Amino acid sequence: MNLIEYLQQQNTIPRNKADKFIKLLEKYDENDVLYEAAINDIDLTNEEYEELFVELEKESYVDSIFIIQCPFCDSLGNTYVEKFDIPETDECRFCETEFNHRENYITAYRIYFNYKKKVDILTDLGEKINYNQDRIFEISDEIRELEDKRKAIQLENIKFATLRNELLVDKSESKMYNKVADKYKDKKVKYIGTLLYMKKCVITCLECDEVYELFQIDDNYIGVCSMCQKEIGINFK
């Protein structure tokens, strides 16, 4: 039962006053603070007021709170949930006048409407099952997608490793490395094999039908015939 339903069924105050209270509560939300000044509009007697809020607090629809009010500037200060927590004297945080806090506070109430959504248990359970099934399908699709990506990355790694191994050319395989290195001793010489264009073709010397060996000289590339030692320039575009 929520607060509104309780007020409609209670017998502590007359129905017309309960209706006024319900109308007043339309302006409030869960956990809002209800001040005594607002309650005065309901025209409750002291006895009705005390009995009603004792019952409301007992049913956990309200909690009493105590708000310090400065007797000099009427400003509201700290809020306490227990009276014994209120300090005896302290300064007003606005006008900075010291006064007795235990004699200068107002009582207010924090409201709990306790609205609860009425649901059909079977319908709610069915919705949760359907959601979980849909989520399982989504997760399965995500797993398949991740597995496809993993396989693609694995294949790329294999291709990279294969290409790397193909490109690792030992200068000891070159017949001309020492001569080229000696000729270009002031430059950085690197033997890069004999294959061109994705390792699919070679350059052959027209005079002696020997394959050109390829070298990188700093940032330039040349081919050197391993027989006649003829050099050619190579440009990669």
Provide an overview of this structure.
With about 240 residues, the chain is α+β, with helices and mostly antiparallel strands. It has 2 domains: about 5-110, no CATH class; about 170-235, no CATH class. The chain has 6 helices and 12 strands. It has helices at about 5-10, 15-25, 35-40, 45-60, 120-165, 175-185; strands at about 35, 60-70, 75-80, 90, 100, 105-110, 190-195, 195, 200, 210-215, 220-225, 230-235. The strands form 4 sheets. A 4-stranded antiparallel sheet has the order 1-6-2-3. A 4-stranded antiparallel sheet has the order 7-10-11-12, with helices on one face. A hairpin with a 2-residue loop joins strand 10 and strand 11. It is elongated. The mean pLDDT is about 85.
Q: Number of domains in the coordinates?
A: 2
Helix-strand string: HHEHHEEEEEHHEEEEEE
Work out the radius of gyration.
Answer: 45 Å
Find the count of extended strands (DSSP E, 2+ residues): 12
In brief:
By secondary structure, this protein is an alpha+beta fold.
Secondary-structure topology with pairs:
Blueprint: H1 3-9, H2 15-25, E1 33-35, H3 36-39, H4 46-58, E2 62-69, E3 76-80, E4 89-91, E5 98-100, E6 105-111, H5 121-167, H6 177-183, E7 189-193, E8 195-196, E9 201-202, E10 212-217, E11 220-225, E12 231-234
Antiparallel strand pairs: 1-6, 2-3, 2-6, 4-5, 7-10, 8-9, 10-11, 11-12
List keywords for this structure.
4-stranded antiparallel sheet; 237 residues; alpha+beta; elongated
